[in-house]
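Handout, page 2. Input:
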Amino acid sequence: MHSKGRLLYAPMPRQILLVDSVVQELAVIERILTRAGHCVTSVTSFEAASLQASLSKPDILITAVRLGRFNGVHLALRFKVDYPGLPLIVMGEESEVSLAADAMQTGARFLPKATPPEQFVEFVAALLAGRVPRDLVSTRRWPRRGVELPAKLSERTARVVDVSYGGLRLECDTAPVNGDSHVNIEMPTVGMVLTGAVFRWSKPAKNKPVWSCGVELGSVSAPAKQAWRRVVDSVK
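Output:
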């Protein structure tokens, strides 16, 4: 369109691929996104999503967790390989903490289906604009359970003092390594070795002459993550 002799270009609507096997929920989310000005293509299966993506080249994928034989995390993994850099959102129930953990490990963002429409639209817009919105489900909401497990942190003697699906907290006699370093953690009493975990932080513990250290699973292998969840679930 023209305005005072200048040619103005309206922004192109962003292409969203929406996947949900529950047709009623698919229609609700599609309506919210369409009203926000996006161009939405909706499909109901893993296979249809893969085919549609090859045809339409979406700007973002939004998928439900439950997709019949597969789930949204499997789809996010496929898209991470086939379409590097594509923003990915996996939606599910906030109680599905293990699937939320899996989604985040693929680089996708996890959103509860109960997220208010305005907050949902803002989250999608931020990802499309290349920003990093705050996670609406924090790993701190995952079950954290106190334990006493002897361990080795990259050959240094340590004690695991609490665990969650996303990582663990240890105590060491001295500050062990710098933040964001990859480490290996051995826990002989549960027969577990976490290879490729990410050491995030360390600080002096309160009222103890030790250092408290936070570790996330990071690039730990998928089978090891599954085994780790069983360890966490076994803690009473």
